[in-house]
């Protein structure tokens, strides 16, 4: 391998590609060649670097200077000034808090990463996701080697159990405990499924992990396979995630070539391989039993539990279903131990969480922070606050099935238990910030439209409940709701929570229930034909959408 | 979904089914491939699949209508899917939809007269970092404004 004095990482995550990262990279390569630096500077495509709103983004190493919002024509300055003369191009440097911050330099020094702690995203934006060599050079497949050659399956399960890792797919179920149910079952076949269906509105962390570090998921699935005695893995991935699918396929092929998947891995007699299956557009298929139905070629309708998939899952065989982010935690836990992991985050929820910050927030994008950080720290710290001089109205954590939290909750720690107590959820880590220009009825109507569309229709409380709630909020928005609307909404929510078959119907009312607690007055005003935020076009009758 | 132009000769439905060993467990994959070949899943195609897999047509139809990426009706050359989930809604997805309706002269679910575009609504596309967003075919577009939407449509003219 030749020696390069500098590396330029070009973010090739979807948001940056959409903003023209391809053209930026081409221009960069052209300029590097024009300057005759092609033997000295290496350009590498990498996964998401985080500040998606400010793409296209590149990072120049060894200094670690991040440039953002780039245009192809600016590449000549970066090459001429930075790569040739070693001078940072100040005006193109990424600024974490756009208005006030002075230009900052290295990735580590930047405010953006200050409060962050990267376990899951350890390699994202640092290595070329298409290079298994770079993954290995950064400690990749070491955990698999350690597990296979120095640990028994029982020890692997025990380590994950001791780490306190909880599932990051939404429910927060302890991962080690889940594995310990499946491991002792004697069966001719078991499966590990990686749930990469990611349909929760506002969530795109799994996509960015798969795009940025596909090998970490392959390695983790093999470790899980060893722990519970499964030799087959399946990644169920959203049909729209073209780039993730391609990268994962290439990564699996490379791992096979190097004998890290397949037969007799590390000469230990352990066999494991995986296939990649794609979804066809149905949010409910993220629910683990619906996902399994879909894998069996059926409508993705959730099954009644128990039996749980850990006992009888795909084709009736014991099946462990884990989320992408959950799995990404496994290799570091095996390498560094349960103690280390427990030292991060909170006592009940160790580790970090990847959040996607969205809506009315200055820095939209992806962050990884220790569990237990407060909403305020995320929104006003890493998130850079609320833009356009508006005030904070509410934050919805956990995706569309989470609760609406007003400003009284800004100091709430972000972990499973605290958020559940407040009537919300940590869920998949989506954090939707809504400023005071929005109307609660319009927001709730949008939630209900989603659920009404995504309900699989199998059970009555959810099928009818979501449709009725959507109708009621449409009526409220149009100023056509009856006097009893709020009472009806309350009753419907309760029925759905108590009697829906799966998590979709049970949690769909969360946003409404919390909003009724904290914003009832604003909702009631709509009954009287008034929209305080001036969003609902009440006087004009029902809206077009 | 539009048929991808590809240099490979297209496989026949029979070949596809044979590749999956006539396994009903692979129904979803077979339907996806069948759609790739025929553009959409017509009654005749679904009947043929049911015959070959030896399962009731109702099951094939049930699966085909469950998933939004499968189509049982013919669609336009380009399918435009506008995200209407809350994060995009907050950032003005309604204006994007209104612009598309106005320029194309169709409502969601409809196809333009020249069969060029089908307008659809969709749940979150997983690119909320650049909300509001839409997809045209396999291509994602983010940070949309009414002006940008018009520009983008021009590139498909
Ligand atoms: C309606 C619904 C949608 C879900 N969508 C997802 C999803 O997209 N990804 C995911 O990992 N889990 C999703 N889940 C949770 C899964 O059922 C399951 O709990 C999870 O995949 C288990 O993995 P974990 O323990 O690693 O979190 C969903 C659950 C429900 C009820
Ligand atoms: S709760 Fe909703 S999504 Fe779940 S099974 Fe019932 S109808 Fe389907
Ligand atoms: S909400 Fe529109 S892409 Fe996610």
Q: How would you briefly describe this protein structure?
A:
The complex is a heterodimer of chains A (about 550) and B (about 160). With about 550 residues, chain A is α/β, with parallel strands linked by helices.
Rg of Cα set of chain B: 17 Å
CATH superfamily annotation of the largest domain in chain A? NADH-ubiquinone oxidoreductase 51kDa subunit
Q: Hey, which two chains have the biggest interface?
A: A-B, 56 and 44 residues
Task: Indicate how many domains the architecture of chain A comprises.
Answer: 4
In round numbers, the mean pLDDT of chain B is: 92
Task: Indicate the structural class of chain A.
Answer: alpha/beta
Number of helices of chain B: 7
Q: What gyration radius of chain A follows from the Cα positions, in whole Å?
A: 24 Å
Instruction: Tell me the fraction of residues in β-strands of chain B, as a range.
Output: 5-15%
Q: Strands across the major sheet of chain A, in which order?
A: 7-8-6-5-9
């Amino acid at each position: 391998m030749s020696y390069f004095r500098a590396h330029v990482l070009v973010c090739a995550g979807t948001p940056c590609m959409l903003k023209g990262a391809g053209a930026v990279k081409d221009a960069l390569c052209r300029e590097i060649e024009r300057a005759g630096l092609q033997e000295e500077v290496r350009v590498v495509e990498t996964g998401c670097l985080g500040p998606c709103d400010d793409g296209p983004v590149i990072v120049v190493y060894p200094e670690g200077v991040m440039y953002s919002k780039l245009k192809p024509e600016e590449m000549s300055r970066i090459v001429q000034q930075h790569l040739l003369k070693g001078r940072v191009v100040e005006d193109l440097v990424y600024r974490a808090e756009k208005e006030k911050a002075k230009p900052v330099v290295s990735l580590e020094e930047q405010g953006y990463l200050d409060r962050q702690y990267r376990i899951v995203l350890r390699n994202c934006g640092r290595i070329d996701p298409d290079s298994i060599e770079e993954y290995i050079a950064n400690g990749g497949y070491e955990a698999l080697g350690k597990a296979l050659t120095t640990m028994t399956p029982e020890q692997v399960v025990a380590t994950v159990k001791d780490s306190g890792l909880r599932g990051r797919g939404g429910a927060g179920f302890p991962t080690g405990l889940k594995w310990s149910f499946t491991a002792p079952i004697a069966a001719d076949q078991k499966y590990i499924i990686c749930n990469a269906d990611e349909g929760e509105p506002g969530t795109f962390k799994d996509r960015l992990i798969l795009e940025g570090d596909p090998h970490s998921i392959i390695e983790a699935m093999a470790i899980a396979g060893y722990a519970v005695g499964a030799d087959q893995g399946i990644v169920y991935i959203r049909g729209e995630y073209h780039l993730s699918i391609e990268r994962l396929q290439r990564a699996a092929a490379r791992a096979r070539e190097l004998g890290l998947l397949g037969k007799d891995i590390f000469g230990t007699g352990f066999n494991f391989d995986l296939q990649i299956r794609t979804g066809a557009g149905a949010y409910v298929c993220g629910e683990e039993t619906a996902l399994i139905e879909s894998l069996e070629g059926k409508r993705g309708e959730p099954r009644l539990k128990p039996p749980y998939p850990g006992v009888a899952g795909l084709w009736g065989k014991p099946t462990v279903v884990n989320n992408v982010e959950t799995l990404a935690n496994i290799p570091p836990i095996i390498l560094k131990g349960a103690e280390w992991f427990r030292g991060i985050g909170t006592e009940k929820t160790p580790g970090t969480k990847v959040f996607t910050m969205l809506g009315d927030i200055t820095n939209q994008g992806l962050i990884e922070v220790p569990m237990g950080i407060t909403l305020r720290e995320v929104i006003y710290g890493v998130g850079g606050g609320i833009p356009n001089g508006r005030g904070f109205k509410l934050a919805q954590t956990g995706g569309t099935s989470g609760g609406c939290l007003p400003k009284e909750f800004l100091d709430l720690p972000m972990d499973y238990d605290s958020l559940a107590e407040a009537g919300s959820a940590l869920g998949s880590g989506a954090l939707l910030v809504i400023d005071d220009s929005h109307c609660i009825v319009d927001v709730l109507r949008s939630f209900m439209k989603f659920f009404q569309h995504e309900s699989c229709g199998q059970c009555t409380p959810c099928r009818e409940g979501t449709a009725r709630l959507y109708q009621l909020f449409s009526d409220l928005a149009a100023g056509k709701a009856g006097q009893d609307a709020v009472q009806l909404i309350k009753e419907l929510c309760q029925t759905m929570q108590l009697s829906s078959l799966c998590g979709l119907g049970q949690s769909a009312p969360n946003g409404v229930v919390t909003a009724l607690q904290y914003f009832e007055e604003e909702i009631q005003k709509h009954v009287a034909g008034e929209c305080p935020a001036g969003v609902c076009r009440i006087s004009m009758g029902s809206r077009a959408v | 979904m539009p048929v991808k132009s590809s240099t490979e000769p297209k496989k026949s439905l029979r070949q596809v089914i044979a590749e999956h060993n006539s396994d009903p467990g692979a129904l979803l994959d077979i339907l996806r491939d069948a759609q790739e070949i025929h553009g959409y899943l017509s009654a005749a195609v679904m009947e043929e699949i049911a015959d070959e897999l030896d399962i009731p047509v109702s099951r094939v139809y049930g699966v085909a209508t469950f998933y939004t990426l499968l189509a049982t009706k013919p669609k336009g050359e380009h399918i435009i899917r506008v995200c209407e989930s809350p994060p995009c809604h907050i950032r003005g997805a309604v204006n994007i939809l209104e612009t598309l309706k106005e320029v194309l002269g169709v409502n969601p679910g409809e196809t333009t007269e020249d069969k060029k575009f089908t307008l659809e609504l969709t749940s979150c596309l997983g690119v909320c970092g650049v909300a509001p967003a839409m997809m045209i075919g396999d291509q994602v577009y983010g940070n949309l404004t009414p002006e940008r939407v018009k520009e983008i449509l021009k590139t498909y003219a």
